[in-house]
Amino acid sequence: MGEHVVVSASELSEGDRVVVELEGREVAVFRLDGDLHAYLNWCAHQGGPVCEGALTGTYESSYDREGNEVSLSWCREGEVLMCPWHGWEYDALTGECFSRRSVALPSYPVEEVGGDVVVTL
Amino acid sequence: MSTQTGRSPLAENTVVDVDVHLRIPLEELADYCDEPYRSTIKRPTYTAVHRSGWDRYMGGNIQKESLPDAETVYRKVCEGFDVDYPIINAFPVLASVPEDDRAVNMMRAYNDYLLDNYLDEYDNFRGLLSVATQDPEAAADEIDRMSSEKRIEGVYVLNSGAHLPLGHPDFDVMYRAAEDHGLHVAYHASAGAPFARDFPIQDSAINRFMATHVLAHPWAHMLTVTSLLVNGTPEKFPDLNFSFLEAGLSWVPYMMFRLNKEYGMRRREAPLLERSPEEYIRDQFYFASQPIGEPNDPRHLERILDVVGTENLMLATDYPHWDFDHPDALDRHLRQFYPEETRAAVLADNAVEAFDLSI
Ligand code: FES
């Protein structure tokens, strides 16, 4: 338990990530949309290194009953974290899994303190 | 492979993985082929083995792993997954080779390649010889030829795109050879071209790989199981065991019970059978765990395991394919629901029995 400096803030630009080992756990810190996010690098599916996966987008779709039309749109580009093992998708901004509503990546408090990025476990 | 520290519970057990695939480059395989096939493979019109064009790797965002050499198999599967005995298949898609004679030549090449480059390299490696179903006689000859290799434990049969359903009497020569040499028969389906080409025409309207991938393996296995039972193949070859790789388990209860029911009503159409289809399945058929089903309530998986029977179940990872299962995907259910003895059976003993493994 405690606070850990993982990287200096200037080394983590928008869209970057860093994966570090803290107290025997692999934790990743992302800077996305101006905010920091820290998650456990352990996919809820089968334990794959999810935080090393691509930041991509995903499809959303809706059905218009009246017009009997399905619309399909590519969205959230750069905000969907995809596990490199089997492709489970997570919202990189919240850690929530897109295909399993009750699942989310464990997250940790992370902030900038005096030019450093600090994660609290 | 684990990203978190800690010792895997599998490290203490003997673990057999019944489905490990290679990626053998066709240029290298060509050197094991005779002319004119060698030149055809080296300078194909399109590709030497027709593959599908699906977006398997989701734009390259999921890893396209491969096991290009024996050392990688050892490092990733044996060390990474705590597997003691990987049963390796060359994963040839021979059913997609349009010229029957070339398929036969490539079959021999795949088997020689597997021996030279993998099975001779590590003492704990075991392998399946591949057969070309285009020519059952040649398949039988190949089984004879390979049967003296002590690390060959069974016969790998691709059952997508086989020209006839695999219980057809044309294949009896092949089964007889396998039984004569005490070799197990393992069926493996493919979501590639053979499924698209040879299954019902509705397949061609599928426009997402997910749909193809969900259906390809169980459909092929359902056809194979049905064909074997209606033709009485397990009755003809009572010492032969058959296993079904890469469709998981949940399809099995449906088939056992449906076949029982039909047999009750239409016994005269499967007159070789002396017992119910379910009994043959329980006695001679084995099922590999991958892809393990993912019910929302994990207790439902326990019920499936109970119905299929843990004595018919074998661990498989399907590594290194993109849809592989980490061994823990099955083992966590075994640890939760079953005594250690059952767990040990599923992790290794059943495969030892099914393949009569020399370990
Ligand atoms: S381990 Fe992450 S998708 Fe399977």
Explained architecture:
The complex is a heterodimer of chains A (121) and B (359). With 121 residues, chain A is mainly beta. Chain A has no helices and 10 strands. Chain A has strands at 3-8, 17-22, 25-32, 35-40, 54-64, 69-82, 89-91, 107-108, 110-113, 116-120. Helices cover 44% and strands 11% of the residues of chain B. Chain B has helices at 26-30, 37-42, 70-81, 100-119, 136-146, 172-180, 193-198, 209-230, 233-236, 251-266, 277-284, 298-308, 327-337, 340-355; strands at 16-21, 85-89, 126-130, 152-158, 184-188, 242-245, 285-288, 313-314. The radius of gyration of chain B is 20 Å and the shape is globular. The mean pLDDT of chain B is 91. Chain A binds chain B through residues 24-26, 41-42, 46-49, 53-54, 56, 82-87, and chain B through 2-6, 58-63, 322-326, 328-329. The structure holds FE2/S2 (inorganic) cluster.
Distance between the termini of chain A: 5 Å
Strand composition percent of chain B: 5-15%
The radius of gyration over CA of chain B amounts to: 20 Å
- Portion in helices of chain B: 40-55%
Q: Quote the average pLDDT of chain B.
A: 91
Q: What count of helical segments of chain A does DSSP give?
A: 0
User: What percent of residues of chain A are in strands?
Assistant: over 45%
**Number of strand elements of chain A:** 10
Q: Uncertain regions of chain B: pLDDT < 50 for 5+ in a row?
A: none
Give the overall form of chain B.
globular
Mean pLDDT of chain A: 94
Strand order of the largest sheet of chain B: 1-2-3-4-5-6-7-8
H/E topology pattern of chain B: EHHHEHEHEHEHHHEHHEHEHH
Features:
heterodimer, A: 121 residues, mainly beta, four-stranded antiparallel sheet, 10 strands, 0% helix, B: 359 residues, alpha/beta, eight-stranded parallel sheet, 14 helices
